[in-house]
Amino acid sequence: MHRRQFIAGLAAGCLPLGAAQGHVQGPAGGGSRLTLFSPAPEGAGWSVLARAIASSLREADIEPILVYEPHGAASGLRRFLRDYAGRGEALMVSGASLVVRALMARLSSSIDDLTPVARLTTEYLAVAVRPDQPYHSLAELLNAMAAAPSGIRFCGGNIGTMDHLLASMIARRARLGEFRYRPYLGGTGSIEATLRGSEMLVVAALSELQPHLALGQLRALAVSSPQRLPGSGVPTLIEQGLDIELSNWRGVFAVPRLAPAEARHLVALTDRIVAGTDWKATLFRYNWIGDYLPGAAFGAFVREETTRMRAVLNELGM
Question: Which domain holds residue 144?
Fold first, then answer.
């Protein structure tokens, strides 16, 4: 996939939970309610994806309701399980960080209870610095961190996000004795803080960094993909001596114990979304990699990811 410039933000309002009772038209012409619940603040990555899904649903003649959880993944997961129990007209938009946060909060059984509907996108993360920094390779950065660990810190999303996990993995695999990381709620603000000079080293999705890389405002030192991505010359962590591959996938889940017919309906709905012209334009607009995996196959993938992330967290002592 050719890398395209990231265009930030779609306008959408945040409605309170009570507004989620609104009635919208279902895809087959029958009345149904559909809520897109994002366990993240309004400006975070999952919420951007929720708004993108909402746009594609409107192309399918469905008017969705958007609900956000400002307190983050663990709180959002609890709220979704509590407030939407038994409701087949609700989808939670989340991804890899939800698995990590659930494991850290000992909520992994809650992840297992969710009904997997579809994985929609996968993207990789990159480590970037301001161009006025003297580091032009990962080795130069790690050598400087080893020599003066208190002088350099990573920044990125909340503790337990993939940004934080990647920074922790780099520190562990590079055998850094000390590791400093500053979290930003929902990941929003870390890139901006680096651009204005408040931070010097940021971990974020490559799609979010790409416009700043193209303009020379940031310099990427490494990407977490298994090989270099098409259209991007950023070297991988693997080719620079750190055996790290980490993807940030995102998708949608439904509530536990959903009736099979309702689960099939939601999978059919995501089939329709990813086939639409609006979704294809969305992937282009946001520089996302479409990586569709519906239903039972997605469920098997989530179980594998949960096992893998548990092993990573154990290695990191988290």
Answer: 130-240
